[in-house]
Amino acid sequence: MTSTTHASFIIERRYQHAPKRVFAAWSDPQAKRAWFVEGEGWDIRSYEMDFHEGGEEKSSFRFVKGEETFGEETLFSNDTVFNEIIANERIIFTYSMARNGARFSISLASVEFSAEGQGTRLVFTEHAAFFDGADGVHMREAGWQELLLKLGDHLDKQGFGQ
Questions:
Q1: I need a labelling partner for 53 at 20 to 30 A (CA). Which of 71, 86, 110, 156 fits?
Q2: Domain 4-39+82-158, CATH
Q3: Picking from 14-23, 57-66, 91-100, which range would have the lowest pLDDT averaged per residue?
């Protein structure tokens, strides 16, 4: 018998950049690839994004540093569908993750952008179903915490600010 674990988490971040700029880092395929996909220790096999309601974002990758844990040929994939997009305000999407073709989680996530002074308050919310062998809520939240820090670094380095 298989098992399913359900969990939710919320992450809030503040960026010193206008909502339009923060939203652009999520909606532009090159910008999103820079902070969301690329990174030390990852071997990116594919990445594509078609950002519109009903559009998809797909990627496949190996974690090079983790070969001793995952094995040399472990291939992960992430398949996303954008369900609702309100420019500069909200993105709602569903996504599934798989290891060597076996799905291990499905999530509903929202990203909300609101002006706060000269910057942006971002609220990321995820509701997930984790299947046998999944990473689980603690690892997933830690992963998003790291990604949202990378987003801030990307915004600062790319002059996406003010």
A1: 156
A2: 3.30.530.20
A3: 57-66
